[in-house]
Design goal:
2 helices, Beta-galactosidase, Chain A, domain 5, mainly beta, seven-stranded antiparallel β-sheet
Length: about 190
């Protein structure tokens, strides 16, 4: 949300109510359709985090979707981005570097996708903002962003909290083989 020097990630949040009705989270401090937000960024030893608190300040039940876009600033043409099949996590591999992001929240549902940073990805993102749904794209290579869509239902005066984590580290040893294993695992899933 802030562009501090030495940041490893760029995280952007967008509140969405309906087609044509959305706003960046940092501009939502005064409320959006009766819901306010408190944001708190932190630089951790292991990476960066963004804590958020959403509050329904009305006597009515409200629904809201929140999109989070996470860009790993070290992402390059040789980067592979993969969605976790069972967790709310993304994994990014680039040469000997790796990044992972995850979200912990009380959302009713969480959806995730990878958007390539090219014309196709931009078109998918525009469709997502228009429709309020996330186009599923599980793996990509090259420049990309990770996207989460969180759906919330708020009772009157209800508070919901969450935290988004982004971690960067080095891949040691034969770690790069893992990218091939992940691609093969997506293509050739084992029966359970």
């Amino acid at each position: 949300m802030n562009n501090k020097p030495n940041k490893k990630f760029h995280i952007q949040g967008i509140a969405w109510k309906e087609a044509g009705s959305y706003i960046p989270l940092e501009k939502m401090m005064d409320g959006f359709d009766g819901i306010t937000v408190n944001l708190s960024e932190a630089d951790e030893n292991w990476g960066e985090s963004l804590s958020f608190e959403l509050v329904n300040v009305t006597k009515e039940t409200k629904k809201l979707k929140i999109f989070f876009l996470v860009e790993w600033l070290s992402c390059c043409e040789e980067t592979i981005g993969v969605l976790s099949l069972s967790k709310n996590a993304f994994y990014n591999y680039s040469k000997r570097d790796m990044a992972m992001s995850n979200v912990v929240t009380s959302a009713d549902s969480i959806k995730k996708s990878v958007f390539p940073l090219n014309l196709k990805g931009l078109q998918m993102w525009k469709k997502s903002l228009k429709s309020g749904s996330l186009h599923y794209y599980p793996i990509t290579n090259g420049l990309h962003m990770m996207a989460y869509m969180l759906e919330y239902t708020f009772k009157p005066f209800e508070v919901k909290q969450g935290r988004l984590f982004a971690v960067e580290g080095a891949v040691k040893g034969n770690g790069l083989i893992l990218t091939d294993r992940m691609k093969n695992g997506l293509a050739f899933q084992q029966e359970k």
